[in-house]
Amino acid sequence: MLDFKPVTINDKEAIQNFFDKTDFRNCDFSFSNIFCWQNSYNTTFTIEDDFLFLHFKTQGHPGYLFPVGEGDLKKAIERLDLDAQEREIPLRIFAVTQEMFDLIEKNMPGEFIYKKDRSWYEYIYSSEDLISLVGKKYQPKRNHINKFKRTYSWEYLPITGEIIPDCLKLYRRWCAENGGCNSESSLVQECIATHRAFDHFEQLGLIGGALRVNGEILAYSYGQPLGKDTFGIHAEKSLYEIDGGFTMINQQFAEHNCADYPYINREEDLGLESLRKAKLSYHPAILLEKGSVRKKNEL
Question: Over 70: is that where the pLDDT of 299 sits?
Answer without folding.
Answer: no
